[in-house]
Design brief:
Rossmann fold; 17 strands; 11 helices; binds zinc ion; 354 residues; single chain; alpha/beta
Length: 354
Amino acid sequence: MSNRLIISLPVKPYAKMSVGRMTTPILGESLAKSFDGNFVMSINDLSSYDTRESSSFIELLNHYNINPNSFWIDREHIQELIEKVYLLIEKGFIREEEKELLRCECGKTEIAKDNISTINFKDSLFEIRDGKYYCKFCHSECIISKEVALVFNSRLVDKNGMLFYPYFMNKDKKTFDNTVGNNDIVISRKRDTGIIIEYNSHIYNLDIDFLWEVFLSLFSDEEKIVMCGNHQMYQLYMVGMLEKCFNKNSNTVCLATPYLESSSDEAKLENRALSLKVYSLLVMRWAKKENTFDPALLNYINTMNVEKKQMLYEILIEGVECTHDIGSDLQLVLGRKYNFQVANTELKRRRRNV
Ligand SMILES: [Zn+2]
C-alpha cells in the first residue's frame, strides 16, 4: 500500500441518498483504490445546536456498498484537537486582541467587523438591509461592541506551498490569500460552544468550526489529498492553511469537487449501488465548477447489464502508477480515467478479447 491518504473534510451526516452529496465518499473510495492508498471519511458531528446522526450516515454508505478504510468523527477527538489549538497558541499564531464584533440577540450571529469582507453571504447566518446587519434566526439587528477576543493571525502562515485541484481553483486560492489569508480571524465566541480554551488566565469559548479545521494535523501520512465540494472552499482553504502552521513542508493537495446539479431523476439511482458509483464518477466535468445533471448517461448506465457495469467500474478504479507529483496523478485519474468515452472504449476492447 502507498502512503497516500485521501481524506474528506468532516461532512455533516445525512441519511438520504443524494448524488451531489455522495460524490465525496464515492470519489474518495475510488481514488484510494486507484492510488492504492487509504480513504478516511470524516464526519462533522460536533455542533453547538443540533445532535446529528453519524450512525445513519454510516448505514447509508454501507447500504450503497461504499467502504472507506475508516471513519473519523470529530466528536471522538475533541481533546486531541484542543491540544493542537494550544500548540497554535505556543507557536504564536493565536493571540488576544481587542476587536469590534457584531452580535445579534440570540448569539448565533457573531462576526468581527474586520472579517465581513471575507464572508460568503449565500451561506451566512445574517443578511444586510439598508446597511444594517440582521440575524436570519432571531431577526434582531446585530449590534457592534468592542471586546477582547482570541484571534488567529493568518498573515503569519506561509501559503506558497498550498496547492488546489482542479488547478483553476488556485485562482480562488489567490483571492482567499488576500482576504481570509491576510487577516485576523476571530475564533472565540461569547456564547457557550462547549469548547473552552484558556489564554493568559482568560477563559474563551472556541468556535466549533475552527476546532475541527485543525484536524489534518492529526494525520501524519506523507502525502494527503483532502477533499470536499467546491462550495466549501472557505473551509478547505482554512484546513489547508492550518495544516501549514504545523508542517510548512506539507504537500497536501486540496481537492475541490465540482458542484453537481440535482434532479428528481436521481430517484432512478435509489438502491442501485453500482449504478450510483459509475454515474457519479463519470458525470463529473473537472474543467467546470458547476456540473449539470446528465439524464442520458444515467439511463445508459441504468440499462447496462450487471456484468458489463461491474467491468466498467473495475476499469475506473484500477490502480495507476503513482509518481512523486500527486497533482499530475490526479490529473491523469480525474481528467482521463473517469471519462465516459475512454472507459467505454476500454470496456469494448476488453470484451472483444474475452
Ligand atoms: Zn440571532
